[in-house]
Structure formats: structure tokens, C-alpha cells
Amino acid sequence: MDQPITLTPLLCLNCQAAIPAQIDERAWVCGQCGQGMALDQQRGLIPIQVYYSANVPVSEPGKPYWVTEGQVTLRRETYRSNSQSAREAEQFWGQPRRFFIPAYELPLDAMLSQAVKLLAQQPTLQAGPAARFEPVILAAEDIQPTAEFVVMAIEAARKDMLKNVDFQVKLGAPALWILP
Predict the structure, then answer these.
(1) How far is Cα 159 from Cα 62, in angstroms, rounded to an integer?
(2) Which end of the chain has less neighbouring CB within 10 Å, N or C?
(3) pLDDT level of residue 81 (50, 70, 90 thresholds)
(4) How far apart are CA 94 and CA 83, in angstroms?
(5) Contact (CB, 8 A) for 21 and 147
(6) Domain range summary for the chain, segments of one domain joined by +
(7) 129-161, pLDDT tens digit by residue?
(8) Contact call for residues 36 and 48 (beta carbons, < 8 A)
(9) DSSP-assigned states of every residue in 19-72
(10) 92-109 pLDDT tens trace
(11) What is the pTM of this model?
(12) Are 114 and 103 in contact, with CB atoms under 8 Å apart?
């Protein structure tokens, strides 16, 4: 027998204030107490850490990014040997990287471009005061597959005729950062 659909209001985990959630949103900050929260498919509403960049202009809403430390192990096979690209890949992924996964609405190619750019040119994260930000529409469960997509895009873009790539991405706990 089918269960009827019920709507449950989202209440702040800290102060029980109502969270004015929109249909596609996946994370919020309580307007009363500042508690960060995300909707998890298995666990429901969970607390999260939210940080605001000191560089977010007051006149514009910031952009939310899931930020997490990651380690990538990689094995590449190419049609043509190009040791320079192989060395570049080993050097790039040989150390932990900080992944910046855009969590706001933008086209897939723009999201990928932004994530690749920020992975290559790691911005300094300096916390500042709370700021307005665009809605968070990327669920925390989507961070891992998005990070894997970013790794694949970087490796496919190398100019060494990639034949096969096998990799693993291990990510730490994410935090939501509001960036300019």
C-alpha cells in the first residue's frame, strides 16, 4: 500500500526556527542563530560547518562551494608515450588537493570549468563575516561523484592521447564555504 506524501517543515537544529527552504535547495543557514544545515537523504537534516570568505562583497551574494581535502591515486595508460604529461599528472596528484565543488546553480560546463580552475589555483581561504549567498542546490552526497568527474576531465584534457585511466578519490569531510 502506498504511503501518502507528507510535508514536514524544516526547523533549525539549534533554535527550532523555521527554515524557509525552496524546492531545489539542499543546505541552509538559520537566519536566527546562524546554524548551518544540510539535507541528507539517509539522515535527514544534519548540521554542517559554514564559512564565509572575507572577500565576499557586501553588495553581491556570495557563491557556495563544498570544500574538502582530497587525495587522488592514479594509474594512466596512453596510446603514445609522453613522459612529460605523466610526470605532470604524478606531480599534480602526488599531494593532497583541496577540491572546490560549486554548490550553486550553473551549467555543467561552467561548473566543471570553475572546479578545475580552483583545483589548479588553490585560493586562500580567509574567514570573514556572514554574508548573503546564492541557494545551495548541490547535495553533499553529490560531492564525491562530482570530484571524480573533475579528475576525469583534468586527465582527459592532457595532451598525451589517454587510453585508460584508473583512479580513486578519497575525500575528507566537506565544509560549505561562501566565496566571492
Answers:
(1) 35
(2) N
(3) low
(4) 16
(5) no
(6) 49-179
(7) 999 999 999 999 999 999 999 999 999 888 887
(8) yes
(9) P---TT--EEE-TTT--EEEEETTTEEEEE-EEEBTT--TTS-BEEEEEEEEEE
(10) 999 999 999 999 999 999
(11) 0.91
(12) no
